[in-house]
Design a protein that fits this description.
The chain is an alpha/beta fold. The chain has a single domain, classed as Rossmann fold (3-Layer(aba) Sandwich). 47% of the residues lie in helices and 20% in strands. Strand 4, helix 6 and strand 5 form a beta-alpha-beta unit. Helix 3 packs across helix 4, helix 6 packs across helix 8 and helix 10 packs across helix 11. The longest helix has 19 residues. Bound molecules: S-adenosylmethionine (SAM). The site of S-adenosylmethionine has 24 residues, from helix 1, helix 4 and strand 2.
C-alpha cells in the first residue's frame, strides 16, 4: 500500500465550499460536452449517467430501500436513483453550498418526497440508523478506506450492499505526483482494487462486482481536456484565466498518470455479510 495520509474534512469542506465554489460554471459547460448531452445529469464526479445506472442496478435493491448517499454533493445522483429505482435516499454532505444547491434540485425532482439531504459528516451518522445500502460517487476518495468501511459496516444491515466508483492505483506512483493526486485533493490515499477488497473484507463486506473502468476513465479524461481547450475563451469569460490554467494543469497531470498505466478507475460493489 502506498502512503495513507490523515483524513482532513476541514480541508474537504474548504475545497468544496470555497476553492471549488466557482467551479460550477466550468462544470456545467464542460461535463455535458465531455460526457455527451444525455450522460450529464448534474453529477459532480467522473461518472456518466450510464455508469451511475449500471452501479445502481448492481446494488440490486428494491423500491423503498433506505439508501445512504455518502458525500451526496449537489444531489443529482440521489435524485436519479430516487426517480429511477424508487429508493428512499438520505444524502449527507459536509459542504453547506452543496447541500443548499442539492435542496434546490430535490425540490424540482418528481421524487422529492424520497430524498432527504443533510449537512453532516458521514462519520456522524448515527449507528442507530440502519440502511439497506450506501453508495459514493467521487466522494469516498476523501476517506481513509479502513475507517470508512468500518463505519459502513456498522450502518448497513446484513445482506445490504455498498457501491462506489473511484480512482485506483495500478502501480507505484512517484511521490510528488502521488501527493498532488491525494493531499492536493484532500484525499488520504489512492488504493488499488486489491487493497479495497481486502479492507472491505476486514469490515465484513464481500465483493460481488469489481469492474475495471480504466479505459473508459482514460477516454473521459481525454475528452475533458479536449473540451476545456475547445471552450477556452468561454471558460475564461465565465471563470478566470487562473482558474482555467489551474484546472487544465490538474487534468493533464492526472491524465499523464493514467497514460503511464499508474492510475485507473473501478466500480466496486460489495455485500454486507
Ligand atoms: C466530488 S463531490 C461528489 C458529489 C456527488 N457524490 C456527485 O457525484 O455529484 C465529493 C463530495 O463529498 C463530500 N464529502 C467528503 N467527505 C465527506 C464526509 N466525511 N462526510 C460527508 N460528505 C463528505 C464533499 O463535501 C463533496 O461534496
Amino acid at each position: 500500500m502506498q502512503r495513507v495520509h490523515s483524513e482532513d474534512f476541514e480541508r474537504v469542506r474548504q475545497l468544496y465550499d470555497e476553492a471549488l465554489d466557482d467551479n460550477a460554471p466550468e462544470q456545467e459547460l464542460i461535463y455535458p460536452r465531455a460526457y455527451g448531452p444525455s450522460e450529464y445529469v448534474g453529477q459532480y464526479s467522473d461518472n456518466t449517467a450510464s455508469d451511475l445506472r449500471r452501479m445502481g442496478l448492481a446494488m440490486a435493491l428494491p423500491p423503498g430501500a433506505r439508501v445512504l448517499d455518502g458525500g451526496c454533493g449537489p444531489g443529482a445522483v440521489a435524485c436519479l436513483y430516487a426517480e429511477e429505482f424508487g429508493w428512499d435516499i438520505i444524502g449527507v454532505d459536509i459542504s453547506s453550498r452543496h447541500i443548499a444547491r442539492g435542496r434546490q434540485r430535490v425540490s424540482r425532482s418528481p421524487a422529492s418526497d424520497r430524498v432527504t439531504l443533510r449537512q453532516q459528516n458521514l462519520y456522524d451518522v448515527s449507528e442507530l440508523e440502519r440502511f439497506d445500502g450506501a453508495y459514493g460517487t467521487g466522494a469516498w476518495c476523501h476517506f481513509d478506506a479502513t475507517e470508512l468501511f468500518a463505519k459502513l459496516g456498522r450502518l448497513i444491515r446484513s445482506g445490504g450492499r455498498v457501491a462506489f466508483m473511484e480512482r485506483t492505483r495500478k502501480g507505484l506512483i512517484p511521490e510528488p505526483s502521488y501527493d498532488a493526486a491525494t493531499v492536493g485533493w484532500a484525499c488520504p490515499a489512492i488504493y488499488s482494487t486489491d487493497e479495497y477488497i481486502e479492507i472491505m473484507g476486514a469490515a465484513s463486506f464481500r465483493s460481488v462486482m469489481v469492474e475495471d473502468m480504466s479505459p473508459h476513465f482514460r477516454a473521459l479524461q481525454a475528452s475533458q481536456i479536449r473540451e476545456r481547450l475547445v471552450c477556452r475563451e468561454e471558460l475564461m469569460r465565465r471563470t478566470s484565466q487562473k482558474q482555467f490554467d489551474t484546472s487544465l494543469d490538474l487534468a493533464r497531470a492526472e491524465f499523464s498518470l493514467t497514460e503511464q498505466g499508474l492510475l485507473g478507475y473501478a466500480l466496486i460493489v460489495a455485500e454486507r455479510m
